[in-house]
Specification:
Strands 1-3-4-5-2 form a five-stranded antiparallel beta sheet. 28% of the residues lie in helices and 38% in strands. The chain is elongated, with a radius of gyration of 17 Å. It has five helices and five strands. It has 149 residues and is an alpha+beta fold. It has a single domain, classed as Hotdog Thioesterase (Thiol Ester Dehydrase, Chain A). InterPro entries: HotDog_dom_sf, MaoC-like_dom, MCH/BMMD. It holds the Pfam family MaoC_dehydratas. This is Enoyl-CoA hydratase.
């Protein structure tokens, strides 16, 4: 298990790959973001997106999956108090394959709960062409080694 001490400033962890399917884009949109440019090819072509695209929130869910697979599942994560920002930089399309990285920007122990470490992380995702599609920063709470033992 990776504890707080295993997330030093500068650590980079690869994320992905995550293949994006048309079926998944349509299913997510139908359930959670049923806007025409996420569900209908013709409407999507006529939109600013210029074609069928995954919901930004779906892209966040894909990123979360990559985070769980990349480092969260085997960590002492206690969740997050929030996200500083998310930016959707390009549409994510069916047929794309997403990859990326998580970088630790800051790390410190909690003053009020020293058994918890606070890490500020940055995620960057790209498509198969290397084009940036999403960036975001957030805080992750992790148990320290002593607390996890």
């Amino acid at each position: 298990m990776r504890s707080f001490e295993d997330f030093p400033v500068g650590l980079e962890v690869p994320l992905g790959p995550y293949p994006v399917t048309r079926e998944e884009v349509l299913a997510y949109a139908a359930a959670f973001d049923p806007l025409p440019f996420h569900l209908d090819e013709a409407a999507a072509r006529d939109s600013l997106l210029g074609g069928l695209a995954a919901s930004g929130w779906h892209t966040c869910a894909m990123m979360m999956r990559m985070m769980v697979d990349g480092f969260l599942r085997d960590s002492t994560s206690q969740g997050s108090p929030g996200v500083d920002f998310i930016r959707w930089l390009r549409p994510v399309r069916p047929g794309d394959t997403l990859t990326g990285r998580m970088t630790v920007l800051e790390a410190r122990r909690s003053r009020s709960r020293p058994q918890i470490g606070i890490a500020k992380l940055r995620n960057e995702l790209v498509n198969q062409e290397g084009d940036p599609v999403l960036e975001g920063e957030y805080t992750l709470l992790l148990r320290t080694r002593e607390a996890a033992a």
